[in-house]
Amino acid sequence: MNEMKKYFVPLALSFAVTTAVSAASTLDEVMKERGLTQKDLLAAAKTYTPTGGRDEYIVFASGGQSGQVIVYGIPSMRILKYIGVFTPEPWQGYGFDEESKRVLAQGRIQGKDITFGDTHHPAISETAGEYNGRYLFINDKANPRLAVIDLHDFETKQIVVNPIMKSEHGGAFVTPNTEYVMEASQYAAPLENNFEPLSNFNDKYRGAVTYWKFDDKVGRLKPEESFSVELPPYSQDLSDAGKLVSEGWSFHNSFCSERYVGGIESGRPPFEAGCSQKDTDFLHVINWKKGEELFKAGKTTKINGHDVISIKTAVEAGMLFLIPEPKSPHGVDVSPDGTHIIVSGKLDSHTWVYSFEKMMAAHKAKKYESTDPYGIPIVALKDALHKQVNVGLGPLHTQYDAKKCVVFTSIYVDSMVTKWDYCEGKVLDQMPVHYNIGHLMAMEGDSVSPDGKYLVALNKLAIDRFNPVGPLHPQNHQLIDISGDKMQLLYDMPLPLGEPHYAVGIKADKLKPGIRYESGWDSRADQRSEFRTRAGREKIERSPGKVNVFGTLIRSHITPEIIEVTEGDEVTIHLTNLERAQDETHGFAMYGGNFNLSVEPGKTSTAKFIAEKPGVYPYYCTEFCSALHLEMQGYLLVQPKGYVAAAKGMDEGQKYTKADYDKQVKTNLDTQAVIDSVVGFITSHNYSDFPTVVALVEDATEQLGFAGESKKKAEEYATQGDFQNATLWAGQWWQYQVKTADLGLRAKTFLEENGAKKVK
Ligand code: RUQ
Ligand code: CUA
Q1: What is the CATH number that goes with domain 527-639?
Q2: Ligand 1 in contact with 346 (CB < 6 A)?
Q3: Per-residue b/e over 3-25, b at no fewer than 16 CB within 10 Å?
């Protein structure tokens, strides 16, 4: 009974505190005290999300050098999750259980584990150019890799390594039906994995764009159905796929078409000078549908076992041409209707708007101004340009509004966002940001129907925006309201995980993540685990030098609780979480084990290690899963070789008598009365109209079933006069009752807060 009351005390206290604060201050007083303006209040009102509230959009931001993905909500800017992608992430057990280690191992570079990633551009899978909310892709620039995250459970499922690139920046960008995920190289290198001196740069170094085939049904990239197009060594930069009228084409900007090779140490000007000498670089225009035909017809060369369409083949097939673009360009963004492509000049103050119709007319008429040194035809700028617009110093990336012709461009040097009309070529509004914006992102901004509403400025520097935390500052995502004519700054969010280069925002209701796995699920392979274990079927299998444990986790015990092995054994522990209840994750860690499992309801995870040294190794659940979480523990005993156990019972600290047993039973009966009253409340209301409550009731009923089993055992031992076991089982009976009551109370509170009606 006393234990029951504990649940209510903290609740009651927190209510008292909240009321006290709001009673003492009026809105005016708070404004005065904190120096807030009306404008601040308006911004706060537009972003503040009361407890239990939900966000309208979910953002997936690159986690930069962390190799992860950051998930947050808009407009609240609350961070919801970090997803481990290229880097081990212990909370999720990513890289700490055997299942996920296999995913990370797919990302090895030339046989070597790479436990870091420089993530740049996330992309959401699309159907007919609309985000479908099923998968997320993200690239790693440092080690040209691409990862697939399934948005059913927000877990990384696959990593592929680009077979020919040594650096990659222009990924991940998807074609309108996610047929392909594109990756364009950045720093040119030989496509084979061999040595070539820089004196052979023009001849032997190459760029490329890879089209990774995506199988939407199984949610995996198919390397054997993927191909690349060889490109000149021009430092291809970003990519975008054509849409609607331009569907079937892809666009890739570039810099350093000077093909400068540096050499500051031998007195030559550095890369930055040599790579920004010419007034123009090249926009690469590629017909990927034609490329797919050539690939299927076998018109490729194998490089490192991968199919590559040579520049020569691509030019002959008319699937590749170039257009000059402004000095050291950055960004290439196709309009939602696919008719225009906007490129910015980093060292220029202009954005250049290309017309797809114009460039195609020139290309079809073979109206080229010249060819580049690799024989690629060049369409003259004037034959492809729609408008050239002065938007501010150092424009980078462009996002499209819901309103036709309206776009937002990030201006790096001037630290601002320019809103402008690309049809008319005129600036509409400008807003300063703090500081030095890189990408910017509008809601569903890469789709064929952007939502407008909000824009996020992804700022590279934070300088004086936040409390100082040492020389390394966080990055700053600034939320901007773009629903009116004038942009309005709403919120500054420090992101302390790496440089979140780019982000994508999707309507929250398009995401349908699951809350539990099918029982015994290997989430990384997306199939039933062969190591799944059902309740009561836990076992330890032994063979010479090997111990395999098939165990289970449920509030609040790990089965088995004692594992005896011999020094030198290879120990593999498979654990299945038997819970069906939402958010009942259990963890698993052990002294000196360097593993941590995150076993969500239904999941099966595996820890593996060599029991090198004799000793006592406590293990426990690492998630605070229940009131008896601390007791969710066990021992791995590593016995020395040749150890013989003495015949001796357990030497426990406590001996129990009939009086102890009776006392426990009395407590249990009192607890049962509480449970009965809660059950009475629930069943006298229309609880079946509330799915959340139905799930809680199912879980509670299950826990009560366990209580019944323990009660039976307790009574059997009591009949035999074994009050040691009778008392312990009566205690276990009570544990299950407490869990039942906890769930029941949660259900009751939910009903009260959500206006359930009395039915009888
Ligand atoms: S680009 S530096 Cu996304 Cu502006 Cu990578
Ligand atoms: Cu399970 Cu703590």
Answers
A1: 2.60.40.420
A2: no
A3: ebeeeeeeeeeeeeeeeeeeeee
